[in-house]
Amino acid sequence: MILEQFYLACLAHASYIIIDERTHSAVVVDPQRDVGQYLDAATRHGATITHVFLTHFHADFLAGHLELRERVGARLVLGAKAAAEYDFHPMADGDSLELGDVRLSVLETPGHTPESISILVFDLLKSTDAPEAVLTGDTLFIGDVGRPDLMASVGVTADELAGWLYDSLHEKLLKLPDATIVYPAHGAGSMCGKNLSSETFSTIGEQRAHNYALQPMSKAEFKAVVTADQPTVPAYFGYDAELNKKERNTLEANLERVLRPVTLEQVLTHQNAGVCVLDVRSAAAFAAGHLAGCLNIGLGGKFATWAGTVIPPGTKILLIAAPGTEQEAAMRLGRIGFDDVLGYLADGAEAFAARPELVAATRRVTPAVIAERLAAGNGPVVVDVRGPGEWDAGHIASSLNVPLPELAQRTDEIPRGREVALICKSGYRSSLATSLLMEKGFTDLRDIQGGMDAWSAGALPTVVPAATAGSSSPA
Question: Using H for helix, E for strand and C for coil, what is the string for 406-418?
Answer without folding.
Answer: HHHHCHHHCCCCC
